[in-house]
Design goal:
Blueprint lengths: L24 E8 L2 E5 L14 E8 L3 H11 L3 H8 L6 E4 L4 E11 L2 E12 L2 E7 L6 H8 L2 H4 L3 H37 L3 H33 L10 H64 L14 H23 L3
Parallel strand pairs: 3-7
Antiparallel strand pairs: 1-2, 1-3, 4-5, 5-6, 6-7
Helix pairs in contact: 1-2, 5-6, 5-7, 6-7, 7-8
Membrane topology: Multi-pass membrane protein
InterPro entries: CorA_cytoplasmic_dom, CorA_TM1_TM2, MgTranspt_CorA/ZnTranspt_ZntB
Catalytic activity: Mg(2+)(in) = Mg(2+)(out)
Length: 344
Protein backbone atom coordinates (compact mmCIF):
# COMPACT_ATOMS: atom_id res chain seq x y z
CA UNK A 1 0.00 0.00 0.00
CA UNK A 2 1.10 3.55 -0.62
CA UNK A 3 2.85 5.39 2.21
CA UNK A 4 3.04 9.17 1.88
CA UNK A 5 5.88 9.36 4.40
CA UNK A 6 4.93 12.82 5.67
CA UNK A 7 4.47 13.99 9.23
CA UNK A 8 1.31 12.97 11.09
CA UNK A 9 -1.17 15.54 12.43
CA UNK A 10 -2.61 15.56 15.90
CA UNK A 11 -5.04 12.85 16.99
CA UNK A 12 -8.58 13.44 15.68
CA UNK A 13 -11.12 14.95 18.06
CA UNK A 14 -14.35 13.24 18.95
CA UNK A 15 -17.59 14.95 18.02
CA UNK A 16 -19.33 16.88 20.77
CA UNK A 17 -22.47 14.81 20.51
CA UNK A 18 -20.55 11.61 21.22
CA UNK A 19 -19.57 12.40 24.80
CA UNK A 20 -22.64 10.73 26.19
CA UNK A 21 -21.31 7.34 25.05
CA UNK A 22 -18.36 7.31 27.47
CA UNK A 23 -15.56 7.08 24.93
CA UNK A 24 -17.24 4.49 22.71
CA UNK A 25 -16.99 6.88 19.76
CA UNK A 26 -13.30 6.97 18.84
CA UNK A 27 -13.71 9.50 16.02
CA UNK A 28 -16.48 11.02 13.91
CA UNK A 29 -14.87 13.23 11.31
CA UNK A 30 -15.96 14.69 8.00
CA UNK A 31 -13.40 15.18 5.22
CA UNK A 32 -13.85 17.39 2.17
CA UNK A 33 -11.59 16.51 -0.77
CA UNK A 34 -9.45 14.53 1.66
CA UNK A 35 -8.98 17.33 4.18
CA UNK A 36 -10.51 17.37 7.62
CA UNK A 37 -13.59 19.52 7.72
CA UNK A 38 -15.34 19.04 11.06
CA UNK A 39 -16.05 16.70 13.96
CA UNK A 40 -19.60 15.47 13.36
CA UNK A 41 -22.05 14.88 16.24
CA UNK A 42 -23.93 11.59 16.11
CA UNK A 43 -27.29 13.29 15.62
CA UNK A 44 -26.02 15.09 12.50
CA UNK A 45 -24.43 12.12 10.71
CA UNK A 46 -27.21 11.78 8.11
CA UNK A 47 -26.53 15.26 6.73
CA UNK A 48 -22.86 14.46 6.00
CA UNK A 49 -23.27 11.33 3.88
CA UNK A 50 -24.05 10.83 0.20
CA UNK A 51 -22.00 13.82 -0.99
CA UNK A 52 -19.51 13.23 -3.79
CA UNK A 53 -16.66 15.34 -2.39
CA UNK A 54 -17.23 14.52 1.28
CA UNK A 55 -16.20 11.49 3.33
CA UNK A 56 -17.50 10.73 6.81
CA UNK A 57 -15.29 8.37 8.81
CA UNK A 58 -16.97 7.20 11.98
CA UNK A 59 -15.22 4.77 14.33
CA UNK A 60 -16.55 3.20 17.53
CA UNK A 61 -14.96 0.81 20.02
CA UNK A 62 -16.86 -1.80 22.05
CA UNK A 63 -20.11 0.10 21.45
CA UNK A 64 -23.32 -0.22 23.39
CA UNK A 65 -26.27 -1.55 21.33
CA UNK A 66 -28.04 1.77 21.79
CA UNK A 67 -25.19 3.58 20.04
CA UNK A 68 -25.19 1.11 17.14
CA UNK A 69 -28.94 1.48 16.73
CA UNK A 70 -28.68 5.26 16.68
CA UNK A 71 -25.81 5.32 14.18
CA UNK A 72 -27.53 2.72 11.99
CA UNK A 73 -30.67 4.82 11.85
CA UNK A 74 -28.68 7.94 10.98
CA UNK A 75 -26.89 6.06 8.16
CA UNK A 76 -30.13 4.32 7.05
CA UNK A 77 -28.48 0.92 7.04
CA UNK A 78 -31.67 -1.14 6.98
CA UNK A 79 -32.90 -3.86 9.37
CA UNK A 80 -30.69 -6.69 8.03
CA UNK A 81 -27.51 -4.66 8.25
CA UNK A 82 -28.54 -3.39 11.69
CA UNK A 83 -28.97 -6.97 12.87
CA UNK A 84 -25.49 -7.92 11.63
CA UNK A 85 -23.61 -5.00 13.22
CA UNK A 86 -25.20 -5.76 16.60
CA UNK A 87 -23.96 -9.36 16.50
CA UNK A 88 -20.34 -10.24 17.44
CA UNK A 89 -18.63 -12.49 14.90
CA UNK A 90 -15.94 -15.16 15.28
CA UNK A 91 -15.18 -15.61 11.57
CA UNK A 92 -14.64 -13.11 8.73
CA UNK A 93 -17.56 -12.52 6.40
CA UNK A 94 -18.85 -10.13 3.75
CA UNK A 95 -22.43 -9.14 2.95
CA UNK A 96 -23.53 -6.84 0.13
CA UNK A 97 -26.77 -5.03 1.00
CA UNK A 98 -26.85 -3.01 -2.21
CA UNK A 99 -26.51 0.43 -0.65
CA UNK A 100 -23.74 -0.67 1.76
CA UNK A 101 -21.20 -3.49 2.04
CA UNK A 102 -20.46 -5.04 5.43
CA UNK A 103 -17.02 -6.60 5.90
CA UNK A 104 -16.17 -8.43 9.12
CA UNK A 105 -12.44 -8.91 9.75
CA UNK A 106 -10.90 -10.80 12.67
CA UNK A 107 -8.07 -8.96 14.41
CA UNK A 108 -5.01 -10.69 15.82
CA UNK A 109 -2.76 -9.62 18.69
CA UNK A 110 -0.39 -11.53 20.98
CA UNK A 111 -0.41 -11.80 24.76
CA UNK A 112 3.00 -13.31 25.40
CA UNK A 113 2.94 -16.23 22.97
CA UNK A 114 -0.84 -16.69 23.00
CA UNK A 115 -3.07 -15.17 20.30
CA UNK A 116 -5.84 -12.75 21.19
CA UNK A 117 -8.68 -12.36 18.69
CA UNK A 118 -11.03 -9.45 18.20
CA UNK A 119 -13.13 -8.16 15.34
CA UNK A 120 -13.51 -5.07 13.21
CA UNK A 121 -16.64 -4.50 11.19
CA UNK A 122 -16.43 -2.14 8.22
CA UNK A 123 -19.63 -0.69 6.80
CA UNK A 124 -18.75 0.82 3.42
CA UNK A 125 -21.36 3.17 2.02
CA UNK A 126 -21.87 6.16 -0.25
CA UNK A 127 -19.63 8.84 1.24
CA UNK A 128 -19.06 7.18 4.61
CA UNK A 129 -17.06 4.48 6.35
CA UNK A 130 -18.36 3.15 9.66
CA UNK A 131 -15.93 0.97 11.65
CA UNK A 132 -16.89 -1.06 14.72
CA UNK A 133 -14.03 -2.43 16.80
CA UNK A 134 -14.53 -5.12 19.45
CA UNK A 135 -11.81 -6.79 21.51
CA UNK A 136 -8.94 -5.30 19.51
CA UNK A 137 -6.16 -3.64 21.49
CA UNK A 138 -4.35 -1.88 18.61
CA UNK A 139 -5.84 1.54 17.75
CA UNK A 140 -6.25 2.68 14.15
CA UNK A 141 -5.14 6.24 14.84
CA UNK A 142 -1.79 5.66 13.09
CA UNK A 143 -3.58 4.77 9.85
CA UNK A 144 -5.92 7.77 10.18
CA UNK A 145 -2.98 10.11 10.71
CA UNK A 146 -1.10 8.67 7.73
CA UNK A 147 -4.09 9.12 5.44
CA UNK A 148 -4.79 12.61 6.74
CA UNK A 149 -1.20 13.52 5.89
CA UNK A 150 -1.99 12.66 2.25
CA UNK A 151 -5.39 14.19 1.38
CA UNK A 152 -5.30 12.72 -2.14
CA UNK A 153 -5.60 9.25 -0.58
CA UNK A 154 -8.60 10.14 1.58
CA UNK A 155 -10.23 11.86 -1.38
CA UNK A 156 -10.44 8.50 -3.19
CA UNK A 157 -13.43 7.56 -1.06
CA UNK A 158 -14.62 5.15 1.61
CA UNK A 159 -13.83 2.02 -0.42
CA UNK A 160 -10.16 2.98 -0.74
CA UNK A 161 -9.96 3.82 2.97
CA UNK A 162 -11.51 0.43 3.73
CA UNK A 163 -8.79 -1.29 1.68
CA UNK A 164 -6.14 0.62 3.62
CA UNK A 165 -7.76 -0.40 6.91
CA UNK A 166 -7.79 -4.06 5.89
CA UNK A 167 -4.14 -3.71 4.88
CA UNK A 168 -3.42 -2.24 8.32
CA UNK A 169 -5.04 -5.30 9.92
CA UNK A 170 -2.83 -7.50 7.75
CA UNK A 171 0.19 -5.61 9.09
CA UNK A 172 -0.92 -6.66 12.57
CA UNK A 173 -1.14 -10.26 11.31
CA UNK A 174 2.45 -10.01 10.06
CA UNK A 175 3.62 -8.58 13.40
CA UNK A 176 1.95 -11.36 15.40
CA UNK A 177 3.00 -14.23 13.13
CA UNK A 178 6.60 -12.97 13.07
CA UNK A 179 6.68 -13.18 16.86
CA UNK A 180 5.21 -16.66 16.73
CA UNK A 181 7.93 -17.65 14.27
CA UNK A 182 10.52 -16.97 16.99
CA UNK A 183 8.46 -19.00 19.48
CA UNK A 184 8.33 -21.94 17.08
CA UNK A 185 12.10 -21.78 16.46
CA UNK A 186 12.75 -21.92 20.21
CA UNK A 187 10.40 -24.90 20.53
CA UNK A 188 12.23 -26.67 17.69
CA UNK A 189 15.60 -26.16 19.35
CA UNK A 190 14.36 -27.50 22.69
CA UNK A 191 12.82 -30.56 21.09
CA UNK A 192 15.93 -31.38 19.07
CA UNK A 193 18.41 -30.74 21.91
CA UNK A 194 16.77 -32.38 24.90
CA UNK A 195 13.95 -34.40 23.34
CA UNK A 196 10.23 -34.27 24.02
CA UNK A 197 9.20 -34.18 27.66
CA UNK A 198 5.63 -34.19 28.93
CA UNK A 199 5.57 -30.40 29.40
CA UNK A 200 7.05 -29.88 25.93
CA UNK A 201 4.41 -32.11 24.33
CA UNK A 202 1.59 -30.19 26.02
CA UNK A 203 3.13 -26.88 24.97
CA UNK A 204 3.60 -28.16 21.42
CA UNK A 205 -0.05 -29.21 21.18
CA UNK A 206 -1.15 -25.80 22.46
CA UNK A 207 1.05 -23.98 19.93
CA UNK A 208 -0.20 -26.09 17.03
CA UNK A 209 -3.77 -25.49 18.20
CA UNK A 210 -3.14 -21.72 18.35
CA UNK A 211 -1.71 -21.76 14.83
CA UNK A 212 -4.79 -23.63 13.62
CA UNK A 213 -7.02 -21.01 15.23
CA UNK A 214 -5.02 -18.27 13.50
CA UNK A 215 -5.42 -20.06 10.17
CA UNK A 216 -9.18 -20.32 10.66
CA UNK A 217 -9.35 -16.63 11.56
CA UNK A 218 -7.31 -15.13 8.71
CA UNK A 219 -7.65 -17.57 5.80
CA UNK A 220 -11.23 -16.47 4.87
CA UNK A 221 -9.99 -12.88 4.56
CA UNK A 222 -8.20 -13.76 1.33
CA UNK A 223 -11.44 -14.90 -0.32
CA UNK A 224 -13.31 -11.88 1.04
CA UNK A 225 -10.75 -9.48 -0.42
CA UNK A 226 -10.81 -11.35 -3.73
CA UNK A 227 -14.58 -10.94 -3.86
CA UNK A 228 -14.21 -7.22 -3.19
CA UNK A 229 -11.67 -7.10 -6.02
CA UNK A 230 -13.68 -9.07 -8.60
CA UNK A 231 -17.41 -8.78 -7.89
CA UNK A 232 -19.28 -5.63 -8.86
CA UNK A 233 -20.73 -3.91 -5.81
CA UNK A 234 -22.47 -0.57 -5.61
CA UNK A 235 -20.36 0.67 -2.71
CA UNK A 236 -17.03 -0.43 -4.25
CA UNK A 237 -15.63 1.61 -7.12
CA UNK A 238 -13.82 -0.27 -9.87
CA UNK A 239 -10.69 1.82 -9.29
CA UNK A 240 -10.48 0.59 -5.68
CA UNK A 241 -10.65 -3.10 -6.55
CA UNK A 242 -6.92 -3.60 -7.25
CA UNK A 243 -6.13 -2.52 -3.69
CA UNK A 244 -8.31 -5.30 -2.28
CA UNK A 245 -6.56 -7.78 -4.58
CA UNK A 246 -3.22 -6.72 -3.12
CA UNK A 247 -4.55 -7.28 0.41
CA UNK A 248 -5.76 -10.75 -0.62
CA UNK A 249 -2.27 -11.66 -1.84
CA UNK A 250 -0.73 -10.55 1.46
CA UNK A 251 -3.22 -12.58 3.46
CA UNK A 252 -2.41 -15.66 1.39
CA UNK A 253 1.32 -15.27 2.06
CA UNK A 254 0.73 -14.93 5.79
CA UNK A 255 -1.53 -17.97 5.83
CA UNK A 256 1.16 -19.95 4.03
CA UNK A 257 3.64 -18.90 6.72
CA UNK A 258 1.23 -20.06 9.43
CA UNK A 259 0.90 -23.43 7.68
CA UNK A 260 4.69 -23.66 7.43
CA UNK A 261 5.02 -23.02 11.18
CA UNK A 262 2.54 -25.78 11.94
CA UNK A 263 4.48 -28.16 9.70
CA UNK A 264 7.74 -27.14 11.36
CA UNK A 265 6.35 -28.03 14.79
CA UNK A 266 5.11 -31.37 13.45
CA UNK A 267 8.50 -32.18 11.89
CA UNK A 268 10.34 -31.18 15.06
CA UNK A 269 8.08 -33.40 17.14
CA UNK A 270 8.59 -36.34 14.77
CA UNK A 271 12.36 -35.79 14.84
CA UNK A 272 12.38 -35.73 18.65
CA UNK A 273 10.38 -38.97 18.71
CA UNK A 274 12.84 -40.61 16.33
CA UNK A 275 15.74 -39.44 18.48
CA UNK A 276 14.00 -40.80 21.58
CA UNK A 277 13.40 -44.15 19.89
CA UNK A 278 17.05 -44.28 18.82
CA UNK A 279 18.16 -43.66 22.41
CA UNK A 280 15.78 -46.35 23.65
CA UNK A 281 17.20 -48.80 21.10
CA UNK A 282 20.75 -48.02 22.25
CA UNK A 283 19.75 -48.61 25.86
CA UNK A 284 17.99 -51.85 24.95
CA UNK A 285 21.07 -53.13 23.11
CA UNK A 286 23.34 -52.25 26.02
CA UNK A 287 21.08 -54.04 28.49
CA UNK A 288 20.82 -57.08 26.24
CA UNK A 289 24.63 -57.20 25.86
CA UNK A 290 25.29 -57.05 29.59
CA UNK A 291 22.54 -59.59 30.23
CA UNK A 292 24.26 -62.03 27.82
CA UNK A 293 27.66 -61.45 29.46
CA UNK A 294 26.30 -61.92 32.97
CA UNK A 295 24.42 -65.03 31.89
CA UNK A 296 27.75 -66.97 31.66
CA UNK A 297 28.79 -66.73 35.36
CA UNK A 298 25.17 -67.06 36.39
CA UNK A 299 24.81 -70.33 34.48
CA UNK A 300 28.08 -71.78 35.81
CA UNK A 301 27.29 -70.74 39.37
CA UNK A 302 23.84 -72.22 39.03
CA UNK A 303 25.20 -75.54 37.85
CA UNK A 304 27.73 -75.84 40.68
CA UNK A 305 25.17 -74.68 43.17
CA UNK A 306 22.98 -77.78 42.69
CA UNK A 307 24.88 -79.50 45.56
CA UNK A 308 25.17 -82.98 44.04
CA UNK A 309 27.77 -85.19 45.74
CA UNK A 310 29.39 -86.42 42.55
CA UNK A 311 30.13 -83.53 40.14
CA UNK A 312 33.10 -83.01 37.75
CA UNK A 313 36.27 -81.43 39.11
CA UNK A 314 35.03 -81.01 42.70
CA UNK A 315 38.10 -82.70 44.09
CA UNK A 316 40.57 -81.25 41.58
CA UNK A 317 43.05 -78.74 43.04
CA UNK A 318 42.85 -76.38 40.06
CA UNK A 319 39.11 -76.74 39.48
CA UNK A 320 38.08 -73.43 41.06
CA UNK A 321 40.67 -71.22 39.33
CA UNK A 322 40.08 -72.93 36.00
CA UNK A 323 36.35 -72.35 36.34
CA UNK A 324 36.91 -68.66 37.06
CA UNK A 325 39.33 -68.45 34.14
CA UNK A 326 36.79 -70.06 31.81
CA UNK A 327 34.10 -67.64 32.97
CA UNK A 328 36.47 -64.71 32.43
CA UNK A 329 37.44 -65.83 28.93
CA UNK A 330 33.80 -66.38 27.90
CA UNK A 331 32.72 -62.97 29.30
CA UNK A 332 35.70 -61.22 27.67
CA UNK A 333 34.94 -62.82 24.30
CA UNK A 334 31.30 -61.76 24.50
CA UNK A 335 32.28 -58.22 25.52
CA UNK A 336 34.66 -57.99 22.54
CA UNK A 337 32.02 -59.16 20.10
CA UNK A 338 29.34 -56.79 21.42
CA UNK A 339 31.80 -53.92 21.48
CA UNK A 340 32.79 -54.61 17.88
CA UNK A 341 29.11 -54.70 16.85
CA UNK A 342 28.53 -51.28 18.45
CA UNK A 343 26.20 -52.52 21.17
CA UNK A 344 28.54 -51.47 23.98
Amino acid sequence: MQDPGSSAPAAPPVAQGAGEYNGEVVASISYVKGRRDAAVPIEQIHSYVGQSERLLWLGVKNPHPELLTRVGEELRLGPKAMEEIHEPHKRPKIIDYGNVVLVVAVTLELDGDRPLFGETQLVIGDGFLFTIRRGSTAPYSALRERLEAAPDLLARGSDYVASELLDFLVDRYVHAVTKLEGVVENAEQKLLIRGAKDADIRRLYRQRRDLLRIHNAIAPMAEICRRLARVEMTAIDEHARPYFAEVADRVMRIDELVAALRDALAFAFEASLMMGQSQQNDTTRRLASWAAILAVPTAVAGIYGMNFKYMPELDWTYGYPMTLAGIGVACGLLYWRFRRAGWL
